[in-house]
Specification:
The protein is α+β, with helices and mostly antiparallel strands. It is built from ten helices and seven strands. Strands 4-3-7-5-6 form a five-stranded mixed sheet, covered by helices on one side. A two-stranded antiparallel sheet has the order 1-2. Strand 1 and strand 2 form a beta hairpin. The two termini are about 45 Å apart.
Length: about 325
Amino acid sequence: MTLLPNLLTHSGIKCFERFFKAVNSKEGKLKARRRGFLLNDPNLIGLDYLWRVITECNDEISSRGIELLRETCTCTGPSLSPAQQHEAFLTQCCARTQRLHSEMVDEAASECCTKMCRVIRAIQEYINECDRKFSADRQILPIYRSGRGRQCTIIVRFNFQTGQRQIDDIELFSHSNETLHSLRVAVQRRLKCSSESSIKLEMYINKLELYVNGELLDSSHDRKILSQIHLRDKTILVAKVYDGQVCGSGGCGSSNESSSDSSATSPPLPPTAEHALPGVLFAQGTWYLPFILELEHIGITKGHAPLTEAAHLLSQICPPHKH
């Protein structure tokens, strides 16, 4: 790895990716699995070079480097503590930005700010990936989700697949920051109420599929908020209801509220698991606010708008800071 990173081409970064994964897998530092890798040792071979790729290459090659970092470093193996690994990663990233700041001179201020943006984006991707893999309902919400979003009304049209008598369309009051999972539970709850009070459906509902414009809203998107899946005011959702022992991508569970959670088949997470998420750890650190404010200040004083925006976006994906 003596080639200067800024000389890497598309073929070069592909070659480095194969080398990085192969050599660390051979040394037991990474363990390949069905999707991605488990990190068994954070001291990966070639990690320093990967960071140089992220900070020194052009935007496209740098993005590939960030993707490689996200793919290999976000999922810890059983021998590592997730909280300790996340905190170590965040500390190293902050140290990199501080080092870049200390080395900044007026002639190369724009270049240093760009490098700092790359590091911040790596933090953002790291936090977003860990949040995406967290399957339980969030109690410590990031700032962009912590408030009620824009009010919207969702019209639900039921379609029973067993020939049962149809229920009239219903309206659900929601908002743009509500998750698809929460909306799915609300639909199931209203279905249960309608079933018990009006038509007395005698069946075991264990699958509910939601469709918008003919497209299935898969349960893998349940952690997304409505604004991310482009559900607008007065959107019509078609709810296909199945009975019998059928399970699929629409989510399984009876009409019982306790089992309507799409993640009910997953083992329960310990109550402190959310506190080990990198975004939560980042926001709880005493250096969090000074770090964000310093980055925004640098972006403003150096006239580098992307750095200011990157620092702001980083603050939005983390929970509010608590003194």
